[in-house]
Amino acid sequence: MHELSITQSVVDAVCERAAGRPVQVVNVRVGILTAVVPDAMRFCFDLVTAGTVAEGARLEIDQPAGAGHCRACDTEFTLADLILLCPCGSADVDITSGQELQIISMKVG
Fold first, then answer.
1. Which helix (H) or strand (E) holds 84?
2. Residues that constitute the known binding site for Ni(2+)
3. Per-residue pLDDT tens listing for the chain (109 residues)
4. Count of beta carbons in the 10 Å neighbourhood of residue 104
5. How far is it, in rounded angstroms, from Cα 91 to Cα 83?
6. CB neighbourhood size of 58 (10 A)
7. Binding-site residues from annotation for Zn(2+)
8. Which domains does the chain have, with CATH numbers?
9. Of all helices (H) and strands (E), which one includes residue 60?
10. Which residues belong to the annotated binding site?
11. What is the pTM of this model?
């Protein structure tokens, strides 16, 4: 479960930036192509925030869809998973969205 290590890194960064102030909300962007399961991340968040300034904080997850650009036919298309094939059949694809893994904001009290 890689969600645990990812969530631990997020909480470490949030707690460091909070500088002792209680954290109320953490907003993250986790693209669908990262293979991070939002429910697993929420579960891990509750575990790793225990005893920190982020204990009891709410985790809000924005999960942008995957998107790609085909260099062969110059088409933009949606990617539901990491099978990088354009509808035209080409595998000459650039991922343009869906791999994000970012802390967007946090609210401290």
1. none
2. 2
3. 689 999 999 999 999 999 999 999 999 999 999 989 999 999 999 999 999 999 999 999 999 999 999 999 999 999 988 889 999 999 999 999 999 999 999 999 8
4. 12
5. 9
6. 13
7. 70, 73, 86, 88
8. 2-65+98-108 (3.30.2320.50)
9. strand 58-62
10. 2, 70, 73, 86, 88
11. 0.85
